[in-house]
């Protein structure tokens, strides 16, 4: 398409702005991530003496790093509108988020909308594709204890065993509370055709806005983290008693992400900011763990039901621009999620000051030694 004379200045400014944003994010990463690693190294004695306090401090720094990523989108005009139940009510309990997956921007969206949910981000464990291990943020996720899962049928059984071991070794010992899981096992655009063929072959729901979820990782997580009562049934919370002190996993948070016109945001857009300001919509439903079956077949059926409901939610959203009201309510209520500019300024200032401090410390020791 030919560029008109009127469009040229706008496109030129868009290019300059994208380059400036990219340069800032490179510098941001160069000061923030090495500073995080240096703090973690210097705090290793505390890890031996008081492991819980060490992981608390590490979690706070982890939250700040994710807050920086969230701010990149925030200042490009990529905001979040929340719908459904208020998940702040269960932010202190253990929970698993089951999220539909459309693009890399889903992760950035969650990084943003969970920032104001107390210590959720600090105590969160992500399950993500192994390719993220080799990104700039991979070292941070490795230290924090996120799990990188390799996709593909040939790896599936091995990866589930590794996940089980990872949870046993890292979840409780690092005081983790929430887990983020994308049960579809890949992006919608990549899995839709395969999922629909599988559904047709096995007489399962035919979905277009989501794909049929895989139950393997969900089953491993539930079996590893759900506290069992003496009678063998799961000990979880009740929707009317959010202050439950039951140990173990208590909630499943069914999370549905929707983009206007079904056009998801990818990580490149989030970084460069070349797309017009966009509001991403996130819908939550909370299920007490006692209502979730643990047996494989029943759990698979339960997950299918949740994704059929996601299909309906997204269809309604794409038709009307809003999610439908919850059961028992006449109108759907949305909540605009906001980030504090002062808080972003403070964590960015801390990152750059830390980077300057560690640079001088390392330079001093280098000159002393060499």
Automatic annotation (TrEMBL):
It is found in: Endoplasmic reticulum membrane. Residues 95-211 form the Phospholipid/glycerol acyltransferase domain. It comes from the Eukaryota. Signal peptide: none annotated. Its main location: endoplasmic reticulum. This is Lysophosphatidylglycerol acyltransferase 1. SUPFAM superfamilies: Glycerol-3-phosphate (1)-acyltransferase. GO terms for cellular component: endomembrane system; endoplasmic reticulum; endoplasmic reticulum membrane. The chain crosses the membrane at residues 20-42, 54-75, 131-149, 337-359. One of its GO terms (molecular function) is acyltransferase activity. It is a multi-pass membrane protein.
């Amino acid at each position: 398409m030919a560029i008109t004379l009127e469009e040229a200045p706008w496109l030129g400014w868009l290019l300059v702005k994208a380059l400036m944003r990219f340069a800032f994010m490179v510098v941001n990463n160069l000061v923030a991530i090495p500073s995080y690693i240096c703090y973690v190294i210097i705090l290793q004695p505390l890890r031996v003496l008081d492991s819980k306090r060490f992981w608390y401090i590490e979690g706070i720094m982890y939250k700040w790093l994710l807050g920086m990523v969230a701010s990149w989108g925030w200042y490009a005009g990529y905001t979040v509108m929340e719908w459904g139940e208020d998940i702040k009510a269960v932010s202190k309990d253990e929970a698993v988020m089951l999220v539909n997956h459309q693009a890399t921007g889903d992760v950035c969206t969650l990084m943003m909308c969970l920032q104001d949910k107390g210590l959720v981000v600090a105590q969160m464990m992500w399950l993500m594709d192994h390719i993220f291990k080799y990104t700039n943020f991979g070292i941070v996720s490795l230290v924090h204890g996120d799990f990188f899962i390799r996709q593909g049928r040939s790896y599936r059984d091995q990866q589930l065993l590794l996940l089980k071991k990872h949870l046993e070794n890292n979840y409780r010992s690092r005081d983790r509370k929430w887990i983020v899981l994308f049960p579809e096992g890949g992006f919608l655009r990549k899995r839709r055709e395969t999922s629909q063929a599988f559904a047709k072959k096995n007489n399962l729901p035919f979905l277009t806005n989501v794909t049929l979820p895989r139950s393997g990782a969900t089953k491993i997580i539930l079996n590893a983290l759900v506290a069992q009562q003496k009678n063998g049934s799961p000990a979880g919370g009740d929707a009317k008693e959010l202050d439950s002190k039951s140990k173990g996993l208590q909630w499943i948070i069914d999370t549905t992400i929707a983009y206007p016109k079904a056009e998801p945001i990818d990580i490149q857009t989030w970084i460069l900011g070349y797309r017009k300001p966009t509001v991403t919509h996130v819908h939550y439903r909370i299920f007490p763990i006692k209502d979730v079956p643990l047996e494989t077949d029943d759990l698979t059926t339960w997950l299918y039901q949740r994704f059929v409901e996601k299909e309906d939610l997204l269809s309604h959203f794409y038709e009307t621009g809003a999610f439908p009201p919850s059961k028992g309510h006449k109108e759907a209520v949305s909540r605009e999620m906001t980030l504090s500019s002062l808080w972003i300024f403070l964590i960015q200032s801390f990152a750059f000051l830390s980077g300057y401090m560690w640079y001088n410390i390392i330079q001093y020791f280098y000159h002393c030694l060499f």
